[in-house]
Each structure stands twice: as C-alpha cells, then as structure tokens.
Amino acid sequence: MATPNLILIPGSVITITGTYRVSHSNGHMGDADCVLLKGTVLPRCGKDACHVTFTLVTPHVSEDRDFKET
User: Fold this and answer.
1) Cβ neighbours of residue 17 closer than 8 Å, sequence gap 6 or more
2) For residue range 43-54, what is the model confidence (pLDDT) as tens digits?
3) Model's pTM, two decimal places?
4) Rounded distance, CA 60 to CA 70, Å?
5) CB–CB of 55/16 below 8 Å?
C-alpha cells in the first residue's frame, strides 16, 4: 500500500484513517505520531501564533483494499 503525500491543517476533516505526524511551527512541542480516524475534525493548537500540520505517515490497514471484504 503506497502512502499518500497528505498534509492537513486544523479545521480539515480526516479522510483516511491512519498514523499522522503532528508538527507545531513554534517548536513548543516536539513532533508526535498519533492515530486519527476518518471523519475527525483536526484541532487548532492552543498556543497563539502556532501553526500545526498533520502529515499522513501510514494509512491504517482498514484503508487497504486488499484487506476489505467483498
């Protein structure tokens, strides 16, 4: 399964369940990987002037059509 080059910002809706790398622009937190589910609306950072990005690292196996029931 190929990993799409998917980068999202706060307010976006997750379209692919998987592991995402969360990065904060001002460096007040290190990058963190988390599992996000399809349909989740991405939150903003509570720190002023901090831009956050969510980058898809690996789609969940449920997103792979080879593992879907037919």
Assistant:
1) 35, 36, 37, 38, 59, 60, 62, 63
2) 988 887 788 999
3) 0.81
4) 18
5) no
